[in-house]
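[job 4417] fold queue: 2 targets
>>> target A
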Amino acid sequence: MSTTPDQPHGGHQDLVVRPDGTLPERFPDPGMEPHRSRKSDLDEKHAKKVERQVVALFAVSVIGTLVFLVAYFTLPVGTPADIKVSNLTLGLGLAFALLGIGTAAVHWAKALMNDHEVVDERHPVQSSPEVREAAVQALKDGAEDSKIGRRGVLKGAMVSALALFPLAIVVPLVGEVGEDWNVGKFKRTIWARGVRLVKDPDGRPIKASDVTIGSVFHVIPENLEEAEHPLDEKAKAVVLVVRMDPRDLKETEERKSWSYDGIVAYSKVCTHVGCPVALYEQQTHHLLCPCHQSTFDISDGARIVFGPASRPLPQLPIEVDSEGYLVAQSDFHEPVGPSFWERLT
């Protein structure tokens, strides 16, 4: 199908077909579409309105950063409800701080900066002195096109937003200086000989007869409330109790006494990055971490079946007391939680 040179097609001029039916060797340069001026280019009042909008967006960023900083220093984090409120406020503050800067920059570029299309011809890697001088001049022209020099309020709003926003990143990092970085604390929990296993969160002791094959209990130590920092201790001591057919258990000689009639107890804290491992598949006896899909076989010492975790889940040795309740024989025999620089394997 041939068309005349002036016939429009897709917004561009079609190629001229030669009399012999062949096409030319090169595509003709269609050129640029005519420049269409924006309302802010033609009306200074509208340009001022856009400027106020950009200033307002930078102000949103400033307010977001201030909300983040105030929340970081003032909101308590003692209870789960406090932590939820703190995280929500910090997240919203950081979101508005970033959103304000990003939206302001886009709106500024689209409505105020020069939008004339230009062609920059490809040139050798090493530019001549004349070209370098032209590049410097282009940067100066760009600064002029942005109109930042003639819009003091806009410049002040941008500088304020950009100057304050890094505090939302730096302050939490600096706040960690002087904190307790002793990873040795993860080698010990408040589990000890004779401490009863109780249900989380109601705190009811668990009898071995209550645990049927295939059932799962989320467990904490009975003496948790006696700890100086209960939430911290709970984060380390949470345990998952499962009962399976004793014939399905593959136990080493050392660990044969750590279970009771098919009942085993393993740390819920994933050894990858510490997420709660809580998804149990009865048929395969696999525990799945929902964060990064590390999978552990609790019928075989919580052996790693799949995923990035580098070591099995620590097992809590358990037994039954004189009243039939499940109790710990001792603390974990290895650190709970992620593998760190003191525990790489």
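>>> target B
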Amino acid sequence: MEAAADDANKIDETKKCQKCEQYRDWVMQYSPNVVFMLEQIQRAGGSVPKDKISCEICKDPKYGGFHPELGIQLCANYIPDKWVLNDTLSHELIHWYDNTRFKVDWLNLRHHACSEIRAASLSGECAIMTEFWKHAGFMRVARGHQRCVKRKAVLSVMGHPACKSKEQAEQVVDEVFRSCFNDTRPYETIYR
């Protein structure tokens, strides 16, 4: 019985990874944001080989992550569709861009917070309509984008091994928020 359950689970995981790879390939070809970020990373002197964007089964509930040496991890078991993968990949590519362009010290909480602020703001995941639909219309439009960016940056910084508390994450995000939020590179401007 256990062997059959394990086999069924492996088949399900394989299907999720294959679907994730289809989504990844589609957004890498057709998503304006993803295509733009891939071009900007190349202009900054980097490259993003497709084999460095992997679809995997993740233990922690998240959509993905970036590691400067390993690349981008997309969590096939948590990404429900290509639109979520698009936002996730856009977010992680901003980290890749920051790492290429600015030589981020990922062990430094302020550096990490800055890249998280930029990624949440520039990736589209905090766009007004995205937040509106996620929160059933209860979000106030004024400053909603900034609140979303702060919330997501704090959550990411809390996951950093050097972060000791939510309060510390909030403090670090607050310290760098203005300058990092206003830095829209490589975009000239962003729409919110």
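[job 4417] complete. Note on B: Strands lie at 53-56, 64-67, 71-75.
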